[in-house]
């Protein structure tokens, strides 16, 4: 396995280009299962997770090729309906093939994803949603065996919690159902709007984009289309926070600031100068003005609230602030795996259930250490801390990082960081 080595203490300057969004690419790649013909997806990031879902689509009979950041996926060859355990266990977003397989073939056998580092992550909302469309879901030997005779039937689906992939799965299934489906308490993340745009281009009839109530009037068939993956708001937020944490001044290019309302508000409150363009963010740390980062409280919420996927990264910033920051993680039950590692770098953090109290170091610094990545976003939190820390930080198990950040070493080097990979 490889580790990431960072010689910290250098201000990030210059500019960094953001890639396509992982959490848009995964559902949009899954949506190609819905129609024959060659789908074109532009601005697709080349990540461990996008490679995983493409392997899954191959196992179902589809073919694809990549040319630069464009993917050409032929949905014609779909002939299998089983997603194996060894693929699903590496990426729980594989459950996103359930909806399209049920819509196209009337059956799907997908391994239960199982939990991951950040929580149990059940899929009960997905399954009860499919049952509202007439599907029978049996759970046996760790697999979901879902099937229906004939076409899915439109119905009303209500999510107790606005599930992102649950909303995406039901959107894809309902697009080919007979009749109208209403999804209530739907998630409103920008990645869902990206999927709605793709499905609409394929011939689906969907109303309520960006709202909590989606109305889908099913059609008999869909056709292949050309779509573009939106910029990765979580990658953009990660680099913006890293620039602020290192006392730097730099531009995050090729992003959509409108997708980061909560983060930009919090960074402003922390004293970071943020200048939002149409597709860029200029970030200036308060340290450039001889001031300190101010402590800010954060509570994670479904979009447009503060994203849980940027909680760990913001906590790294808060370890350097003046004052105490209270961080409340409301989405996942175990998303503080980064705390123990940050503490090993000198951070002063106390956890009480889903609340972390971060006492900023203010006048002193974090120090480099050997730390271990546990999940995707916790890894990026350790990278931010290592960039800001004095001395060398070695981050092991960086395969977690490579699931969701394209060419992070190249992008950080472009911002002036001293970072490289080594064999562990
Ligand atoms: C998506 O996961 C993202 N993944 C996650 O990003 C993100 O953290 C999460 O949404 C929340 O924004 C992708 O889009 C591929 P949820 P998802 O269903 O859809 C509970 C990353 O780092 N729940 O919105 O799995 C669940 O346990 C990843 O890129 C149920 O109880 O999240 C959680 O507490 C991590 N039953 C809450 O709802 C269900 O059937 C929100 O989960 C579904 C969810």
What does this structure look like?
The chain has two domains: 2-18 and 231-423, Enolpyruvate transferase domain (UDP-n-acetylglucosamine1-carboxyvinyl-transferase, Chain, Alpha-beta prism), CATH 3.65.10; 22-228, Alpha-beta prism (UDP-n-acetylglucosamine1-carboxyvinyl-transferase, Chain), CATH 3.65.10. Helix content is 30%, strand content 25%. The chain contains 14 helices and 24 strands. It has helices at 22-31, 48-59, 85-88, 98-105, 124-132, 164-175, 190-201, 233-245, 261-269, 311-318, 337-344, 376-388, 399-402, 408-414; strands at residues 2-7, 13-17, 38-42, 63-67, 70-74, 82-83, 107-111, 136-140, 143-147, 156-158, 180-184, 205-207, 213-217, 226-228, 249-253, 273-276, 280-284, 298-299, 324-328, 348-352, 355-359, 370-372, 392-396, 418-423. Helix 1 runs parallel beside helix 7 and helix 11 packs parallel to helix 12. It starts with a strand and ends with a strand. The mean pLDDT is 96.
Here the CATH topology of the largest domain equals: UDP-n-acetylglucosamine1-carboxyvinyl-transferase, Chain
Tally of distinct domains: 2
Average residue-wise pLDDT: 96
What does the main sheet amount to? 4 strands, mixed
The share of residues in extended strands comes to: 25-35%
> What characteristic shape results from the CA principal axes?
elongated
Rg value: 22 Å
CATH superfamily of the largest domain: Enolpyruvate transferase domain
Bound molecules: ligand EPZ
Order of strands, main sheet, comes to 22-23-1-24
Number of helices: 14
- The CATH architecture of the largest domain would be Alpha-beta prism
Q: What is the helix fraction of residues, given as a range? A: 25-40%
Helix/strand-derived class?
A: alpha/beta
Low-confidence stretches: none
Distance between the termini: 6 Å
Number of strands: 24
């Amino acid at each position: 396995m490889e580790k990431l080595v960072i010689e910290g203490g250098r201000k990030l300057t210059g500019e960094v280009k953001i890639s396509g969004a992982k959490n848009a690419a995964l559902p949009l790649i899954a949506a190609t299962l819905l129609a024959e013909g060659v789908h074109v997806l532009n601005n697709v990031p080349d990540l461990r997770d996008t490679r995983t879902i493409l392997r899954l689509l191959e196992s179902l009979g589809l073919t694809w090729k990549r040319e630069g950041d464009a993917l050409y996926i032929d949905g014609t060859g779909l002939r299998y309906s089983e997603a194996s355990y060894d693929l699903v266990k590496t990426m729980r977003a594989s459950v996103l093939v359930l909806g399209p397989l049920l819509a196209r073939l009337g059956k799907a056998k997908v391994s239960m994803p199982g939990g991951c580092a950040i929580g149990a992550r059940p899929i009960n909302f997905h399954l009860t949603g499919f049952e509202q469309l007439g599907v029978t879901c049996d759970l046996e030997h760790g697999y979901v065996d879902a099937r229906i005779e004939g076409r899915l039937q439109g119905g009303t689906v209500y999510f107790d919690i606005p599930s992102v992939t649950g909303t995406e799965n039901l959107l894809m299934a309902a697009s080919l159902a007979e009749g109208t489906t209403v999804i209530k308490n739907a998630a409103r993340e920008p990645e869902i709007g990206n999927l709605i745009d793709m499905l609409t281009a394929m011939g689906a009839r969907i109303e309520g984009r960006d709202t909590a109530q989606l109305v889908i009037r099913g059609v008999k068939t869909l056709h292949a289309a050309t779509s573009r993956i939106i910029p990765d708001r979580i990658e953009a937020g990660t680099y913006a926070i890293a620039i602020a944490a290192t006392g730097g001044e730099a531009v995050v290019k090729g992003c959509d600031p409108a997708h980061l309302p909560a983060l930009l508000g919090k960074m402003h409150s922390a004293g970071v100068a943020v200048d939002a363009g149409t597709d860029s963010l200029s970030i200036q740390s308060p340290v450039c003005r001889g001031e300190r980062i101010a402590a800010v409280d954060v509570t994670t919420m479904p979009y447009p609230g503060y994203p849980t996927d940027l909680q760990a990264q913001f906590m790294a910033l808060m370890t350097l602030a003046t004052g105490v920051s209270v961080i409340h993680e409301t989405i996942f039950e175990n998303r503080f795996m980064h705390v123990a590692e940050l503490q090993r770098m000198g951070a002063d953090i106390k956890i009480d259930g889903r609340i972390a109290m971060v006492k900023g170091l203010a006048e002193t610094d974090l120090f480099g250490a050997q730390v271990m990545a546990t999940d995707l976003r916790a890894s990026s939190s350790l990278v931010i801390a290592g960039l800001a820390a004095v001395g060398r930080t070695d981050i092991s198990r960086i395969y977690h990082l490579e699931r969701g950040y394209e060419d992070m070493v190249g992008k950080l080097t472009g911002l002036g960081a001293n970072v490289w990979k080594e064999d562990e």
